[in-house]
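[Meeting: bench + compute handoff]

Bench side (C.D.) handed over the final construct sequence. Compute side (W.E.) agreed to return the predicted structure before the next meeting so the bench team could plan truncations. Sequence as handed over:
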Amino acid sequence: MTTPWGKRRTRNPSGPTAPAYGTALPPTSAPAPVPAPAPPRAPGHPTGPRLPPRAGDTRRHLAAGLDCYFCLITAGLLTRPYVDASTTVTEVLGLLAGPALAFSFLNQVLLTAVAGAGLGKLIMGIRVIRLPDAGRPGLWRLVRRWLYGLSLLPLQPWYGLRSFLADPGPGPDAPHPVTLPTGCTGEPYTDPSGLRQVRRSDLAAHRDAMAFPR
């Protein structure tokens, strides 16, 4: 190709002409750092929306109170025909023990396996879920939880008194350290059987988010 001044100009087919010796090169930006790969998830680690939070203390305590109330009423109605004026207190307690344990097993294990919660929890809008996938708990886990509750519940006042005497704290409102049983993850009220009590509305929202992810 000839220019108007008579000089022939050649075109570099491979791209722009390299700068002459001594010419400053334009500054180049540093390459973007490559993000490190995410660590692999442990087997059974939940994915997707977060698990529903644990139900509040007041709601859970009211549910436990309702369960105790229904248990005592049922046991009393079943043992009433066998109690008269000559029955001693020891005999009455012995008669109440069998129906109370039977009702507790039916309520905490069988009804929870079928409906997702016992009678008191159903009234208070609580459901029992399995961790870490928020599924319905199996029968064996519920049996373990029921046996654990029977063995630990009578000792709760002793655990609370021992924790208070070990470290009374600076004031009545200061939090006290609590020694959790073996198998707990460190979260208060953690179930060693891998279960959690949640609100029914929170569980429904979690399942909707899992069924229709954004």
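W.E. noted at the follow-up: The chain is about 45% helix and 5% strand. C.D. will use this when planning the next construct.
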